[in-house]
Amino acid sequence: MQETRIRVLKRLAEGPVSGPALADRLDISRAAVWKHVEALREAGFEIPSGDDGYELGSVPEFGPAVAFGLEAPFDVVYHDSIDSTNRRARELAAEGRSNVAVVADEQTGGRGRLDRTWASPSGGVWLSTLVRPGVPAAHAPLYTLAAAVATTRAVRETGVEAGIKWPNDVLVDGRKLAGILTEMEGEADRVAWLVAGVGVNVDIDPAGLPTEDATSLRAEGVDVDRRLLTQRLLEGFHALHESHETILPAWREYADTLGRRVRVETGNRTIEGEATGIEFPGALRVDTGGTVETVAAGDCEHLRPA
Ligand code: BT5
Known about the structure:
The chain is α+β, with helices and mostly antiparallel strands. It is built from seven helices and 14 strands. The strands form three sheets. The chain has a seven-stranded mixed β-sheet with strand order 3-4-5-9-8-7-6, sandwiched between helices. Strand 1 and strand 2 (53-54) form a beta hairpin. Helix 5 (141-156) packs across helix 6 (226-242). The chain is elongated, with a radius of gyration of 21 Å. The N and C termini lie far apart (53 Å).
């Protein structure tokens, strides 16, 4: 959302204000005030005008309103419907942008890892953050973990006990509530840009999702304000990305995988054993009985105890 528009909203949130006073405060013309107020009304904000001037009635549950009240330095680019927020974020990266959060209500071409499909009907939180962290490419997995931690925290605030399955799934009672897809470009010694895409099934009927192992916040019985959930998630991600050393300890706290028997498929190998730990920048330690293996990437399945 445009910066002046956010300032208009912030002023309205403090209480009623007349058009001329608003124009003075923001150093814009009265015509410009009127244009901003009209644009905000079109975006779903209720802004009645009475004797005391304009007032902020209600704020939309989602949409461009995600930018309003967001305590993290992301420009919000909102789409009602788009093929993929990750694809859009990569496009913005190519244009030189940074610190952007692309947010959509629906994706028509949502993607998972390894070109899998990610079902993204209307009612979810589908978002991608574009950052330029200036770290070596080898550190990139840390951002996947950070996104998983931020998602888990935001979900737990709604009262749902979510946990993380290594490396990138957020689960509730073994069912997948959210997934993360991180993409990046850069040289070995420096990431040029990194896009962390997060998909959370919020107000969605899980019967419409492609697997029985999926759940949604609606199915878990909570009615969630998607704007607030998105804001908490973005704020959490930003805070973790600012202080790297907090990511792994937080991940361990929310991990559902540690201490379990797991099977990890790496593409050319299958490793089975007990997940005993996670190492910088995100590798899983698996005790196979004879040796301890460190797995950098793969698909992980939680197994029943032996
Ligand atoms: C992921 O892949 O879990 C990464 C998902 C990332 C989605 C976000 S949404 C915003 C951004 N824009 C994008 O285009 N993508 C990102 P993976 O671990 O490969 O899991 C994919 C598998 O999860 C699929 O093969 C299905 O089995 C299952 N799946 C698909 N859609 C699902 C959904 N909505 N909820 C739960 N499981 C789903």
